[in-house]
């Protein structure tokens, strides 16, 4: 009688736990767009959600502590003239967020320290250069002020946000629409999936020369998603000829044959992968799914090991993942997913059960901190550097507002921005200008009242 040997793993018993109802974010009109995006981004201070908006595109920015029912008059970020398709917080500044839209522009916004007190419609910088809608925005993981955008015009651009220009524009590399674009961990390579069924891995500074290419990672016609993982490998999700959802792991040096290929189910939603390089765990979510699957990647066959699945009765419209520095290490939380329902956002904590209350060093190796390792000029000149790591042993305390400098010439015309940011908050200059205008109006009113009183006395 043979016994099945169970693989030993400290993540084998990871479980998902939704928060209580009063800790959800309710009465949010989540975007109804059919775009296969997350529609959500989160950091240790704020939660951003793309919402329905009349006459343009908008997204909410909420402090994490502002749970419960949302006021219908809550301010939004509403500078785009068409629906917003993607948002992402800057990894090096918790008050700066980028958005891509159907209006063919990318906008970079500064959120005040206390969150929005009134609707924000004046971006720091407007980045114009795409000829069709922009569906992907992604900050560089280690370079300061570097932002990638990809649109339905088949073009990938890397912007230096500080000067409002795109020093790198790859116009001819992709013959069709780009489904996904993801940096590797140190930002030296970019990995894209295109409608032509090919996955490309390349250095955007090399002028569009493809380093490695997977000719057809999945046979189906539906979109492919790809994320670079440790050891230079690529993890892809896609569909078979029979429309079964699949996951695969590839070594780019051998693009003809995957290291492993596994079929998941027959649902129709595109699987969106999220990879945690600290634990080597990958999480899969899909629009319309009501579950989150998670796998562990190892160096031994079959390389991709199924761990477990979190299920609920409600399907998801999208969601965002909290960076590692925003997790609760005292509860052995290794990931947190902010699940978007039709009218609310529900945080789900992924936890490793441990009896001890002490810091678990094996679960929390040093992780990427908020400091950039390179300036934009250094990265563009060819330098590479891994992320600057921090320890979570004492927990992570968000730092005070960081300065976000923008070239003074951008203050003119549509690319209006605010040079530097005072320590009180990224929106303080804007508020001080409004205060001056208000004081001038009050002074004018007082002058008129004084003149009327003189006339009455006469």
For the CA atoms, what is the radius of gyration?
A: 24 Å
SS-derived structural category: mainly beta
- Roughly how much helix do the residues carry, as a percent range? under 10%
Q: Which band does the percent of strand residues land in?
A: 35-45%
How many DSSP-defined strands? Answer: 32
Number of helices: 2
**Shape label:** globular
Mean pLDDT: 86
Low-pLDDT runs of 5+ residues are: 408-435
The main β sheet shows up as:
6 strands, mixed
Task: Please report the distance between the alpha carbons of the first and last residues.
Answer: 114 Å
Family: Belongs to the WD repeat coronin family.
InterPro entries: Coronin, DUF1899, WD40/YVTN_repeat-like_dom_sf, WD40_repeat_CS, WD40_repeat_dom_sf, WD40_rpt
Region (Disordered): 410-430
WD repeats: 77-119, 127-169, 171-212
Q: Could you explain how this protein is built, in words?
A:
- There is one protein chain.
- This protein has 2 helices and 32 strands.
- Helices cover 8% and strands 36% of the residues.
- The longest helix is centred in the C-terminal third of the chain and has 30 residues, at 428-457.
- With 458 residues, the protein is mainly beta.
- The radius of gyration is 24 Å and the shape is globular.
- The model is unreliable at 408-435 (pLDDT under 50).
- The strands form 8 sheets. Strands 1, 2, 6, 28, 29 and 30 form a 6-stranded mixed sheet that branches. Strands 3-4-5-7 form a 4-stranded antiparallel sheet, with no helix packed on it. Strands 8-9-10-11 form a 4-stranded antiparallel sheet, with no helix packed on it.
- The protein has helices at 376-380, 428-457, and strands spanning 15-18, 25-26, 40-42, 46-51, 57-63, 68-69, 77-80, 84-89, 96-101, 105-110, 125-128, 134-139, 146-151, 156-160, 165-170, 178-183, 190-194, 199-202, 210-214, 225-228, 234-239, 245-250, 260-263, 271-276, 281-286, 291-297, 304-311, 318-321, 333-340, 344-351, 367-368, 389-390.
- Belongs to the WD repeat coronin family.
- This is Coronin.
- Keywords: Coiled coil, Repeat, WD repeat.
- Residues 410-430 are annotated as: Disordered.
- It comes from Phrynocephalus forsythii.
């Amino acid at each position: 009688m043979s016994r099945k040997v169970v693989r030993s793993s400290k993540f084998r018993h990871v479980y998902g736990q939704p928060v209580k109802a009063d800790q959800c974010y309710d009465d949010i009109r989540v975007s109804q767009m059919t775009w296969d995006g997350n529609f959500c981004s989160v950091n240790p201070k704020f939660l951003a959600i793309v919402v329905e908006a009349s006459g343009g595109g908008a997204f909410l920015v909420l402090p994490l502590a502002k749970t419960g029912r949302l006021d219908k008059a809550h301010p939004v970020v509403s500078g785009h003239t068409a629906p917003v398709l993607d948002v992402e917080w800057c990894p090096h500044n918790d008050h700066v967020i980028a958005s891509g839209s159907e209006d063919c522009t990318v906008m970079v916004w500064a959120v005040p320290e206390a969150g929005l007190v009134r609707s924000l419609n004046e971006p720091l910088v407007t980045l114009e250069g795409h000829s069709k809608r922009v569906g992907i925005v992604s900050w560089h993981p280690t370079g300061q002020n570097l932002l990638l955008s990809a649109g339905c015009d088949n073009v990938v651009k890397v912007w230096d946000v500080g000067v409002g220009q795109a020093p790198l524009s790859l116009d001819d590399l992709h013959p069709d629409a780009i489904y996904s674009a993801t940096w590797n961990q140190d930002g030296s390579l970019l990995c894209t999936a295109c409608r032509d069924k090919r996955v490309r891995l390349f250095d955007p500074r090399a002028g569009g020369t493809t380093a490695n290419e997977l000719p057809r990672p999945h046979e189906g016609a539906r979109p492919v998603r790809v994320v670079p993982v440790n050891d230079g490998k690529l993890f892809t999700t896609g569909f078979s000829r029979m429309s079964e959802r699949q996951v695969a792991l590839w070594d780019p040096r051998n693009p003809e044959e995957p290291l492993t290929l596994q079929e998941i189910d027959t649902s129709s939603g595109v699987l969106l992968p999220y990879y945690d390089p600290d634990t080597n765990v990958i999480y899969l979510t899909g629009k319309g799914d009501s579950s989150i699957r998670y796998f562990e990647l190892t160096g031994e066959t079959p390389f991709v090991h199924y761990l477990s699945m979190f299920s609920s009765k409600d399907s998801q419209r999208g969601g965002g993942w909290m960076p590692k520095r925003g997790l609760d290490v005292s509860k052995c939380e290794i990931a947190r997913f902010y699940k978007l329902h039709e009218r609310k956002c529900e945080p789900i904590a992924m936890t490793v059960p441990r009896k001890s209350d002490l810091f678990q060093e094996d679960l929390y190796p040093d992780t990427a901190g908020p400091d950039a390792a390179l300036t934009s000029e250094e990265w563009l000149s060819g330098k590479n550097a891994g992320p600057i790591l921090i320890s979570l042993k004492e927990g992570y305390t968000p730092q005070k507002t960081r300065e976000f400098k923008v070239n003074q010439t951008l203050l003119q015309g549509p690319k209006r921005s605010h040079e530097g940011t005072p320590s009180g908050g990224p929106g303080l200059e804007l508020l001080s200008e409004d205060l001056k205008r208000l004081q001038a109006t009050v002074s004018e009113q007082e002058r008129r009242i004084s003149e009327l009183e003189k006339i009455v006395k006469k």
